[in-house]
Design goal:
single chain, 379 residues, alpha+beta, Rossmann fold, D-amino Acid Aminotransferase, Chain A, domain 1, Dna Ligase, domain 1, 3 domains, 6-stranded mixed β-sheet, 5-stranded antiparallel β-sheet, 15 strands, 21% strand, globular
């Protein structure tokens, strides 16, 4: 914490949700436990709720710290002293009955946690929660819808095609032909294939030639019923912009940061294996390029109705800037850029977490009391 971030007395209690029934479960455990530790140091009373791969909810012991435990340790919550399991309904009821009610910090990545599902559950229960709402979360998670919206407002995106699992199963020859024609229509014949509604590069493949296409699609469909197939951008730099804020005030934008992958592309291992890739919170770009990156990030965030915080990812090849995707719940791992880029604005890791909580509480208080009564109906 810096002097500028000295918290006011009476920090609200926070319940951190981590884990989740998604292929990004392990990343979420690392993010969530780091967030919980940072918020506790900032003076917030903190509970941690682990959602296992089957969707059951477990309350971890008060004061729990991950320390050097591997994420796989959390496969057996009872062995960690967790209380549970609770069904999702019982867990939401327990949260709603808590006094004082907590702010729920959603540290879940991927389906259920990042796609509007848990946001809708918390909305229905009247609980304050961090990050974007139901609609923005769903749009941000679905890369095909996000791309359509961004292209529609004139933002530069990587060209793509979407393939459903049902179509691949019913007419694979037609799909192969369409994707081969798509690749042939570009100066670059390689393709990136990934699940359309997942992150952390899970299920992602760089297809070098048509012989690799079937395996790439099959892998993507292990994780989703919709695959995104993009034109590969050779020699592109991976850049990221951090955003904090919402429509109630000025947005804070930081970066761009840069990742130099230790693999052919920025895959899961390159993202989460310490020392394999290199990161910088301040990429070497011109002032004009930085202004362009920040403007596109701001426009994309506003276009989906983003709230609280997000990370916007770019590819930059030469002077060409392409919007890649938005992450409405970016990683908070030790090697994640999102929580470290705001250091240029005076934030510590814990300060970023506390600011996200404050934004969630302000949004919730702005909605409080907006319940209909019979006199409000057009009778």
């Amino acid at each position: 914490m810096t002097a500028a971030e000295t918290p006011p007395p009476g920090r609200p209690p926070v319940t951190v949700l981590l884990g989740g029934p998604s292929a990004e479960h392990d990343v979420s455990i690392v993010s969530g436990t780091a967030i919980a530790a940072a918020l506790a140091e900032e003076g917030h009373p903190v509970e941690q709720v682990l959602i296992d791969l089957g969707g059951a909810w477990w309350w971890l012991p008060l004061g729990h710290r991950r320390e050097d435990r591997a994420p796989a340790t959390y496969d057996d919550p009872a062995a960690l002293g967790a209380e549970g399991p609770f069904s999702v309904g019982a867990a939401i009821d327990r949260l709603a009955a808590t006094e004082p009610p907590p702010v729920v910090f959603i540290a879940l990545h991927g389906p259920f946690g990042e796609d509007g599902t848990v946001q809708a559950l918390l909305e229905a229960a009247g609980l304050a929660y961090t990050g974007s709402g139901v609609t923005a979360s769903a749009i941000g998670m679905d890369k095909t819808i996000f791309k359509r919206i961004c292209r529609g407002i004139g933002l530069p995106v990587v060209d793509w095609r979407a393939v459903s699992a049902a179509r691949w199963a019913s007419d694979p020859d037609a799909v192969r032909g369409e994707l081969e024609a798509f690749a042939a229509g570009s100066d670059e014949s390689r393709l990136m294939v990934k699940p359309a509604r997942l992150g952390s590069s899970v299920g992602m493949t760089l297809v070098h030639d048509p012989s690799e296409l079937d395996g790439a699609l099959d892998l993507a469909f292990r994780h989703d019923t919709l695959a995104l197939v993009e034109t590969y951008v050779p020699g592109a730099r991976d850049l990221e912009v951090a955003i904090i804020g919402d429509a109630r005030g000025a947005l804070e934008l930081y970066g761009p940061g840069e990742i130099v992958s230790g693999h052919e592309f920025y895959d899961y291992a390159a993202k989460y294996t310490a020392g394999l890739s290199e990161t910088s919170t301040r990429a070497e770009v011109s002032d004009r390029e930085r202004a362009t990156l920040l403007k596109i990030a701001r426009d994309a965030y506003r276009a989906i109705g983003g709230e609280g915080f997000a990370r916007v990812d770019f590819l930059m090849a030469g002077e060409t800037i392409l919007l890649s995707e938005i992450n409405t719940i970016p990683g908070f791992t030790p090697i994640s850029l999102f929580p470290t880029m705001p250091a240029e604005g005076g934030y510590s890791f814990g300060g970023v977490c506390s600011r996200v909580v404050d934004l969630a509480l302000a949004r919730h208080e702005g909605r409080a009391g907006r319940r209909l009564t019979p006199v409000d109906l057009p009778r």
